[in-house]
Amino acid sequence: MHGEAIWITGIGACSALGTDAEALADALEAGRSGVRLHAGDPARGLSPFAAASIETPLGQDMPPAQRNLYDRHSLLALQAASQAWHQAALPAQVAAPDRAAVAWGTGLGGSNALQQSYTEVLTKETPRVHPYTVVRVMSNSAASHLAMRYQLRAAMLTMSNACASSAQALGEALMLMRQGRADLVLAGGSESMLNTGSVMAWQAMGVMAPPDADDPTASCRPFDDGRRGLVLGEGAAALVLETASHARARGATALAVLAGYGHSVDAVHLSRPQADGQERALRAALADAGMSPDQIAYVNAHGTATEVGDAVEAESLARVFGPRGVPVSATKALHGHLIGAGGALELVACVQALRRGRLPGSAHVRNSQLREIVDLIEGAPRQVGPGKVAVSNSFAFGGSNVSLVVQGV
Amino acid sequence: MSNMLESLRQLACRELGVAEGDLDSHATFADLGLDSLMLVDFMFAVEDHYLIQIDHDAAMKAPTLAGLAQLVEQLVAAKPAADAAAPAAPVTA
Description:
By secondary structure, chain A is α/β, with parallel strands linked by helices. Chain A contains 13 helices and 16 strands. Chain A starts with 5 loop residues before the first strand and ends with a strand.
């Protein structure tokens, strides 16, 4: 067992399903998809694609000179962090900055700013590169802005491990707090890569689901026999983590407890998942939380809807929990794959499911041979009692696997 | 106050998010709170608004809004006829 518990006292989310964590949970429960058809840019070779984009303007409360400092993924970070901070009822800036840290994940960082700069350089006769390009693009850009905004001076952890980035940021934040190096951590992740260059790169990889001809909003079908790949999303999610004593001292209450973190590396292939590595991450997370598989009431699967990925995850889940041993859903069907921000968003989805007592379904499943080994939640949310425990999986290109354990209160 | 300085002040208020009364046309950009990167960002906004190219070193010889207004006025006047016919981008909120 570890020292004192690490409480989650605030959550925030911004995705195609809405600009706060309640909207996220509402949409997941209703099975409402944030995915839509994008026209692409056929003249440049970008085919029409399905994606879960955010249409709400960002940074409208800032003058242009201030807004220009941020890449879109950093603006999303501010949005999610602001909600989490507000829910935690923290002061505008922390009382003890040297005991407060930020842990943030992103896969590509400022890819929009990078594309903007390259476009300028490669297409203009007299290129004019913006002086903020470097500070918008760098992977620690969002974390830096968050540190400055809330005066988080104890540590800045920037995790960039593809699809596991923000899940790992949360896990490493947990380690940091257990080591006694911080009493409070603002943790999460943000991603925005729905620009031409990035989407074309994903299309070239052949892992993106083609838009469903009948219903583009249902293009992503995790665990369905007809799954054809992932759908990109954009957004951010943030969680305020506090040691229980720190939270109690200021009268804060827990939304949930971040109880365990498991991390493993396949070291086999850049993009092909491995059940062995996933199993190790899952078992490590359960061991870290001091829990057995039968104590887990729900798994939010990585579930990207690639043919191989879902099958391998079904296998690793069956190994750890037994065939159909735990209720599972993959919420990426509705909010898309947020890559570096996915783990944090899905942990927020888990926290919301435990708070509300309703586990969201896995949308767009018609037929699934994987039902034989996976207890898929389908249709209406499944009820769950108070104090139950959920696991969130995030498995990344590069072979990095993260599982997080969160307990309801 | 010249029309150009008035126009530039409006642009600065919008870009920097400051009130008209807080903007001293004769204060240096540093005194207005613009660091080197913020200043280049502001110059980009001025270039886009008046459809001109500003030489940074020339702008720094008189690093105030009043000084910049004189330079911008010269650059606008020196634009080729076809370019000069194009109106400056409107200042919008």
